[in-house]
Every structure is written in C-alpha cells, then in structure tokens.
C-alpha cells in the first residue's frame, strides 16, 4: 500500500492529466495545499512511484504520466474513498438527455440498446457499447429456406425472441429444391426449441442425421449455419461514437492503432469476452488488462444491468483513453441504471 502522501501525489497527477493531458511536474504539485510538501520531497516520491510501475517519465519532460498500475491503484484504493460522489445527480441537461432514451415505448430491447448507445456516446464523447442478452437465451423457433432465383436460395433462422437472420447461398445443380425442403423439415422436427448453440453443434457433429453427403455440401460449403450464428451474436452488440475515439487518437498520429482498434470493434466475440462485469457494481479495465496490445492507453468502464429477468440482462460500457474521468463515467452509468429501473417499474 502507498503512504498517504504517495496516494495524494498519484491522485493529483491522474486528476491533472485527465484535464490537460500533459506530464505533471513536482513544481505544479508543490503548489497544492493538500500535498503540503516541497518540490524536492515530491520528486523523491514520484521517483518511488515510478519504480513501483505506477508512473512513467516522458523523454521530453521531467514530468510524469500515470501508468496502468497507477490507474489500477487509483481505481481500487483512491476512488472508493470518493464513492459517495457517484450517487450525485447529473447536470440537468445531461439528465434530460439520458431520460430521452425512455421517452417513448419500445417494442424490442434492441431499441433501448441502440438509443442508449447513441446518448452515451454523445454525453461522453467516447465509444459507447451496448451488449444485449446472451445468445444462449435464444432457442430455434424456425429454420426456413426460400428459393429466390433459379440458382440461389435464402436461409432464414428465427429465434424464440423474434430475432431473424438470413443468408443467400448458391444452389447445387445436382440437388432439387424439394430435396432441400426435406432437409429443412428434418432440422425443424429435431431441433426447434433447442438453444442455438446446441443447434449448431448438433448440425456440425451429426450431419448425417439430417443430410446425405451430397446434401450437406449445400449448407456447409456456404457456412450457412455458422454465418447465421455469428450474425445473431453480432446483433447483441451496438457500438456508437467510434469517430469520437478516432478523433482523439488522431492526435498521436498512430493510424495503425486506429485501424486495428476499428477491426477489433468489428469482432463481437472479442468484445463479448472482454465485457464481463460483475452482477452488481461497475468494472474498470485499464490498458493491458484488456488482453490486446492495441488497447494500450485505453480503458473500458462497464456495468451489468440486470432487470430481474435472465433474457433482459444487458451490459453497457464506455471505451476511451485511460485518462478519462472514471468518477464522472461511473456517475453516468449509475444514473442510467436508475433511469432504466424507473422505466421498467413504470411499465409494470
């Protein structure tokens, strides 16, 4: 554990770096009444914090910047002492914008997700991510194939949550459409009502139960089932405000990082694996904790929203630079949670 003075110095550096994004020197810290130490004493403490891996020194300045371990200590041990501030109300304008999410009735939970992501991105000026209920809550309601031209057909998968995905594929000259319809009927008779993950595994592992070798090529060479499954998984995810983050990263001229982050944001499986906050409370992941070098100098703050029904369990998150104001973002997420519960209770 850090000493009281070291904690105050670390907090002051992070707070100041959050505002002006410039290295912080001992002279500036010595002017703070809360620290009450000379520049020489502060420099010595900063050197100790650097050895502990909590601060890093830039080449062009004697000032220090927070490092991942410093942010982690700040999140785990310094922010909790300010925890009461998280429950403070947002500004009237921010609260009004947040409440717009619930200003009209929604037919689907995806409407809530999409609108919430838009508002979160606007309020934070970062990337807002909304992750809907887990796919394992979806069961197969119907599988269907419709012929669209003489040589093409469309595979359609419908879940019990009224999620519909489709994919066009090429027909095989050696197989009649009537034979394909027989396969579809066999799939529906055996698999309707089962979780989607089980459906895909059953089709992969026991193909002969539904297809002859020739027939299976129609679906597997086109990767129909895996494609539909990935589309359904992707529909869990709503991402807004990419341009906010890219505009900030553009200042570093690291366009390769921007390109790679954009690619990662297009990979639902990766984001789903990262966004696993606890049942209650807020989770903050910093830099290397995200498991990908391309997320260095970035953080994700996320919150699980459980409305008492497993099929409505959602996750909301904000992706931004590691010097973003965690306290303000936690306050925003908590306010969103309160408004969401107020909306749900008003409907019941």
From TrEMBL:
What biological-process GO terms show up in the record?
A: negative regulation of DNA-templated transcription
Looking at the Swiss-Prot or TrEMBL record, what is one Pfam family this protein matches? WHD_HrcA
Coiled-coil intervals? none
Listed GO molecular functions? DNA binding
Keywords for this entry? Repressor, Stress response, Transcription, Transcription regulation
- Determine if DNA damage is one of this entry's keywords: no
Function, as annotated, reads: Negative regulator of class I heat shock genes (grpE-dnaK-dnaJ and groELS operons). Prevents heat-shock induction of these operons.
Q: Give the protein family.
A: Belongs to the HrcA family.
Instruction: Identify this protein by name.
Output: Heat-inducible transcription repressor HrcA
